[in-house]
Design brief:
The structure is a homodimer.
Chain A lengths: L2 H37 L3 H32 L3 H33 L8 H25 L3 H9 L1 H21 L4 H33 L27
Chain lengths: 241, 241
């Protein structure tokens, strides 16, 4: 390629990368705001989350369009192709993260005014802290092209899954103790599941960053989420793991 | 392009399309099997669903890799580019559909042997019938490049959402009536939500098919799913919509 073409291709790659970082920041804010709205019962903030998710969707479309255009125009190979394909994939995960945060926001609005002891949300708060940390770290790993950091994030996925499985049981217990908790706890179960899935997407992004930087795939993910397989039988019946 | 190049490009497009159709058939079977395993409490079938999902994931990767390669090699524009980008997007939705079916399978395994009156799954069966029909139709619309059929599928999304919202309330009622139902109903709520989301992905695919064939976007989707906003307050409290 002539030198000016190389330079402007480089510019295009950088621009796509910049957009992914920007989108990551926006998605991260959405998740943080959705969790804050849940813990503080801040309905106005929850409504904002529901609205702002549309901008994350828009960003995903822009990144995808631009990336496809660059692939067609520049026919990139090796590192450059990995960089662009990774941008498409990360934007896809970030869009899903935005959707999940939006769903948390909707549920916060739903349970407004319901019987709602603060202890019920404490477990959700803990898992959210961990997930937000993972999301922040993996976005840093992407921005810095740091594969070691991506592997660190990837290795911590199991902790979130374990926490979610125990939270799942805890919320079922609250429902059994007091039927007034059933409606709120059901929404909290979905909120917790959404947040756990945000953690899964952070792990996906870690895998993509690793692939982008190294050209290699990480091995199969160690899964510790047993909640789909978890039941809390009625007292007197055996508990299945 | 020289004639033989055009012919082989055509061949590549057709091959990608064929793979998407094949993947659609596989995803459809997974969904049908997961629902059957739930209704018949067929653990062996549920286990098969959990295993077979990996082949759907593999198909998605193949379609994406091949599509990116064709974009880089052929620099397609207009119709051809839309065709390839649509294949990537549909494969993405189908992969998510496979994941959701797999999660239903996991939950079927979880609730084996639990107190589990058959009436509890009846509502899930109804919504599944509707979703499977939507999925089948939209895959037909894709295979036939039939935009009118895509619009029909798209327009029926609201019916699934309405049914899901009512099922959500029904399952909460069963939990409140008898705490022995709480554990199973919680898993059924997640199954129902998964199936409703499969319906959402079918609607996404309808939008993609419409865009692929016409080059236009459908307007914003009419949403009728109010379950995130639905609570069923404890008897004696007001019901919030």
């Amino acid at each position: 390629m002539p030198e000016h073409t190389v330079a402007s291709f480089d510019q295009e790659l950088k621009e796509i990368g910049r957009k992914v970082v920007e989108m990551g920041g926006q998605a991260e804010r959405l998740v943080a705001d959705s969790v804050t709205s849940l813990i503080k019962r801040d309905i106005a903030l929850a409504q904002k989350v529901v609205l702002v998710d549309a901008t994350v969707d828009q960003m995903q479309r822009e990144i995808e369009d631009r990336a496809i255009l660059v692939i067609a125009k520049r026919q990139p190979v090796a590192n450059d192709l990995r960089e662009i394909v990774s941008a498409i994939r990360i934007a896809n995960d970030l869009e899903r993260i935005g959707d999940l945060a939006k769903n948390v926001g909707k549920r916060v609005i739903a349970i407004e005014g319901e019987y709602h002891p603060q202890k019920l949300v404490r477990g959700v708060e803990h898992i959210s802290d961990l997930v937000l940390e993972q999301l922040k770290e993996v976005l840093d790993a992407y921005a810095a092209r740091n594969e070691a950091k991506a592997v660190e994030v990837w290795g911590r996925d199991g902790a979130i899954d374990t926490m979610y499985t125990s939270l799942f049981r805890e919320l079922l217990t609250y429902m059994m103790e007091d039927p007034r908790n059933i409606s709120v706890c059901t929404h909290l179960l979905f909120c917790a599941k959404n947040i756990e899935r945000i953690g899964d997407h952070a792990t996906n992004i870690a895998e993509i960053v690793y692939y982008m930087v190294s050209g290699q795939n990480l091995p199969d993910r160690p899964k510790a989420d047993a909640s789909s397989e978890t039941t809390l039988a009625f007292p007197g019946r055996s508990v299945q793991g």
